[in-house]
Please model this.
Amino acid sequence: MQNHSHEEIEKHIDESIEKETIFLNFQPKVFISSGLVCGYEALLRLPLLNGMYVQPSQVINIAEQNGKILEIGAFVIREVCFYIRMLDQLGIRIPISVNVSVPQFMNRGFFEYIESQFDFFGIRHLGYLLEIELTESMMIHDPETVISVLSKLNNLGIKLAIDDFGVGYSSLNQLKRLPVDHLKIDKSFVENIETSEKDRFVIKAIISLAHEFGMTVIAEGIENRHQADWLLNAGCEMGQGFLFGKPKPFNEISKTRLSIVAS
Ligand code: C2E
Ligand code: MG
Ligand code: MG
Model:
């Protein structure tokens, strides 16, 4: 399959924003023990380009370089606030997480934007249903700013997850100072559960660290029963992956899986 060039993707991003054809897919997060859905992660999608799929990670990478991430990020937050309100009107309260890029998070006005969307949709009392996923790379930035924004988000009830944990630059000294609710174990470790003892050690260490800090653990990229069983046995409470459900447009998940009402 031929890859798209940087320029092609850049143009496609601009057109998709302009024509409002960017959209979100939602992937379930489940309690591994029961398979019950405990939340969804919103994942960015662009329409096909010349009939081909464009990797979201490539889109995000380019958008971070040219600044379009700010518009994309605002769209994602607005859209998820809309769904939180819509679901609440149907009597369903389920957490939805959004991925937040470092430049988006560090941009002045990030917190105020979320607050304005909460007010616009009248969901201030449902703040606990919004989760933000940040990667470890956020920790290399000005710690005081990071902590101050996170504590403001925390005051709104918003939950925080560290995404792709274990593959980036991780400062445990900073981690202990942050109001983190969940650690998401990167899928590269999960992928190797069957073949690598070292990866199994790393997973166990992450789980133990998270629990000592009072955080819960979500394993990403679970594709088979063996991985799920091993993770459950190792003390990992939540999971996400093709075994439980692929990312899908909202109208497809709502029919089948939106049955759990979060407390
Ligand atoms: P992520 O946040 O770690 O999201 C998980 C990725 O793993 C998603 O890829 C998901 O489709 C994929 N995945 C889920 N289950 C499995 C599995 O069982 N096996 C495998 N092989 N993959 C699985 P996706 O949607 O391509 O997104 C890639 C990355 O792009 C995300 O990684 C996130 O870092 C970034 N991203 C996606 N949407 C957004 C967004 O709205 N904003 C920002 N800033 N970044 C986003
Ligand atoms: Mg994520
Ligand atoms: Mg991840």
Notes: Residues 69-89 form the longest helix (21 residues).
